Amino acid sequence: QVRLVESGGGVVQAGGSTRLSCAASGRTLSTYSMTWYRQAPGKERELVGAITSAGGTTNYADSVKGRFTISRDNAKNTVDLQMNSLKPEDTAVYYCNAQRWRGGIRYDYWGQGTQVTVSS
């Protein structure tokens, strides 16, 4: 079992930056791909970006590409989301997700989410 806790966020002015962190307990994250999602009011949850288990590859939604950066520290069991040049449309609850496949079974764990509000 993996327990994920997001932190950071809050209210940020448009054009500003903030950093979210996702800390894991229970198991090491080193074998999990990590993904950040977000959900704005009245909208579906959408993928923000992901990073492979070793951290060698990242990918991002077009809407955040060039502005957001995902990094991970497997020694600290954390994954961060650096968010720059924030826009009001980035306002959402942000969730981290840990995923891996083992023995044909997919294991998924979610954090409780953290609110980011970008004021114009």
Helix/strand layout:
Blueprint: E1 3-7, E2 10-13, E3 18-25, E4 33-39, E5 46-51, E6 58-60, E7 68-73, E8 78-83, E9 92-102, E10 105-110, E11 114-119
Parallel strand pairs: 2-11
Antiparallel strand pairs: 1-3, 3-8, 4-5, 4-9, 5-6, 7-8, 9-10, 9-11
Description:
The chain is mainly beta and 120 residues long. 0% of the residues lie in helices and 57% in strands. Strands 2, 4, 5, 6, 9, 10 and 11 form a seven-stranded mixed beta sheet that branches. A four-stranded antiparallel beta sheet has the order 1-3-8-7, with no helix packed on it. A hairpin with a 2-residue loop joins β9 and β10. The protein is globular. The protein starts with a strand and ends with a strand.
Short recap of the structure:
The chain has strands at about 5, 10-15, 20-25, 35-40, 45-50, 60, 70-75, 80-85, 90-100, 105-110, 115-120. By secondary structure, the protein is mostly beta strands.
- Largest β-sheet summary: 7 strands, mixed
Please indicate the percent range of residues in DSSP E strands (runs of 2 or more): over 45%
N- to C-terminal distance: 40 Å
Strand-pairing-aware structural class: mainly beta
Ranges with pLDDT <50 over ≥5 residues? none
How many individual β-strands? 11
* Dominant shape: globular
Kindly provide the radius of gyration, computed on alpha-carbon positions and rounded to a whole number of angstroms. Answer: 14 Å
- How would you spell out the order of helices and strands? EEEEEEEEEEE
Proportion in helices? under 10%
- The number of helical elements comes to 0
Mean pLDDT: 95
